[in-house]
Every structure is written in structure tokens, then in C-alpha cells.
Amino acid sequence: MSKDWIASPRSAKSISALAVSWRDCFGFFHDYVPNMAGILENEIPKIRDDYEFLVVEDKNLVDDSGRQVRASTSFNPPRISFSASEYRRLVNEQPSGRFTAAHELGHLLLHGSDKNLHRSAAALSQISNKSFSAEWQANEFAAAFLVPEHVAHQFSDPQELAANTRVSLRTAQIRLAALGLWPKSKPTPDLSFLDGYRSR
Asked: Quick one: 140 exposed, middle or buried, by C-beta within 10 A (0-12, 13-18, 19+)?
């Protein structure tokens, strides 16, 4: 497991608000399936002229420990790099490619100007306060960007949400649970009228 980065703390609520604002900025506020490849390749260059989007051979995209990765984000200059196989998943609208794109977009937008960003000695699972974890923040951003609350409320179950937003079933389940929309609890019938019969 690779090491995480420590970032300025952010709450899930503030990250979600930023994700929805950026969805709106890119013109996808009401869309179920924002065009993630289009955002990374066409929309970001409109707001950052020094931004680069690269597709790299799988074997050549590695993290600082030499481990092969699907994608990475760097900040000086701002750049998102995708492995060729993950890029194929992205352009084919596969859930993993879409989530990776939204995750890297989260890093770019949340951490590009974070002066407190520094390498952690611990992995994500070992950081005691997740609000400081750059990886947790990017995951929260990705989930809120791909499945904002106003979209999630339109679906009754994770399978339906996943199918309509092109996210994985697991992402849909986690997002609905985080929003308190799933699992749906069955209403408990009011049997108080039986209290009189029980005491007889």
C-alpha cells in the first residue's frame, strides 16, 4: 500500500459542495453521466492553460516508489497522466475509468494550491483523522462529482443508480449509504393498539 499525502483538512460536506459547483461550472449539473474524458481533455485546459493531460504506456506510469499505477496527478505544471489501459476504460465509459478520472480531477482541484500538502509516513488506512487525507478527499470528491446528492435522490436502489450514472455498484452503495438513502429500512408497524390485549 502506498503512502498517502496529508492535506489541509476538509469535511465531506465541503468537498461535496465543491464537487457540485465544479459539475455546474463544466455544464453537467443535471446530467447523470458527465463526460469525464471531455472534462480532463477539453474543459480543464480552458481554465488552466498550463495544464497537460497525458496517456502513458502502462509500464511507464509508476508512483514514487516504482509501483505501477492507473493514473496520477502532479501540480507543477498541473498534469493528469493516465495509463493506456485506464484511458481505454475511461473513453469506454467503464465505471473504474470514470471514477479514476473524477478522483484525479479531485486531486487537481482540491490540492493544486494546497500549501500544506506533504507526504505522509502512513497509508490512508492509518491516518487517524481522514479529513487530512488527500486520498480520502479525492475519493469523496469523485463520489460527489459522479453521484451528487440531487442525482442520488432520484433513484430507489444502488443497482438503478449505478446503471444510470455509470458508476460501480459498490460506489453507488457507498454513496447512497453516506447520504442516508440506503439501505432503506422497512417501516415498523405501530402495534401499540395491542398493548391493551396483552395486559388481559
From this structure: buried
DSSP 112-156: TT-TT-EE-SS-GGG-SSGGGBHHHHHHHHHHHHHS-HHHHTT-S
Q: What is the DSSP-derived secondary structure letter of residue 74?
A: E
Strands (E), the chain: 5-6, 52-56, 71-75, 78-83, 118-119
d(CA 39, CA 30): 15
Q: Give the residues across from 81 on adjacent strands.
A: 54, 72
Tens digits of per-residue pLDDT, 99-158?
999 999 999 999 998 888 888 776 656 778 899 999 999 999 999 999 999 999 999 899
Predicted TM-score (pTM) above 0.85: yes
